[in-house]
């Protein structure tokens, strides 16, 4: 398990292109904006306000979470320290390193969480047992 800390996870602000003529905003994620090449994109939606997503860590996977719509909290835990990020701006995403336990909660109505991932889906990369996670850190 990677010896990463919650302090290795951070917000990346995306360029926001705003028209001069009230046509709305546009943000871009292109090469070198995030520190990995995305091999997978998925999104969470229709999440009830009392539901929790996540509840696991990854051994090697990097992820970048963007609140495309609405807001939610991401609680990170490296086995020693916890840190909560509230994501509520579509031009500010959270980079999560491997080896970090995460919970996503407090989803607002209609919230959509877009996730860019560094690898294709691989269940063997997950650690879904918190005590097993703590032992590895
Ligand atoms: P999971 O990663 O546990 O979701 P979350 O962290 O949001 O709570 O995945 C939920 C289910 O979806 C699980 O059965 C695996 C499946 N899944 C895929 O098939 N492909 C994927 O890319 C992802 C992220 C999940």
Describe it.
It is a single chain. With 137 residues, the protein is mainly beta. It has a single domain (6-14, 35-136), classed as Sandwich (Jelly Rolls), CATH 2.60.120. Helix content is 5%, strand content 42%. The chain contains 1 helix and 12 strands, in the order ββββββββββββα. It has one helix at residues 130-136, and strands at residues 10-13, 16-18, 25-27, 40-44, 53-58, 63-69, 72-77, 82-87, 92-96, 101-105, 112-117, 126-127. The strands form 3 sheets. It has a 5-stranded antiparallel sheet with strand order 1-9-6-11-4, with no helix packed on it. β2 (16-18) and β3 (25-27) form a beta hairpin. The protein is globular, with a radius of gyration of 15 Å. The mean pLDDT is 97. Bound molecules: thymidine-5'-diphosphate. Thymidine-5'-diphosphate binds at residues 40, 42, 44, 53-54, 121. The site of thymidine-5'-diphosphate has 6 residues, from β4 and β5.
């Amino acid at each position: 398990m990677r010896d990463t800390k919650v302090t290795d996870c951070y917000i990346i602000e995306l360029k926001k292109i705003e028209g001069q003529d009230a046509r709305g905003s546009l943000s871009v994620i292109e090469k070198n904006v995030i520190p990995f090449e995305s091999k997978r994109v998925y999104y969470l939606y229709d999440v009830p306000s009392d539901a929790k997503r996540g509840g696991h860590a990854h051994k090697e996977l990097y992820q970048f979470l963007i609140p495309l719509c609405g807001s939610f909290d991401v609680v990170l835990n490296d086995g020693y320290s916890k840190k909560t990020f509230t994501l509520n701006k579509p031009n500010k995403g959270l980079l999560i390193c491997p080896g970090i336990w995460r919970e996503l909660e407090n989803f607002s109505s209609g919230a959509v969480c877009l996730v860019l991932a560094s690898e294709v889906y691989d269940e063997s990369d997950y650690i879904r047992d918190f005590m097993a996670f703590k032992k590895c850190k």
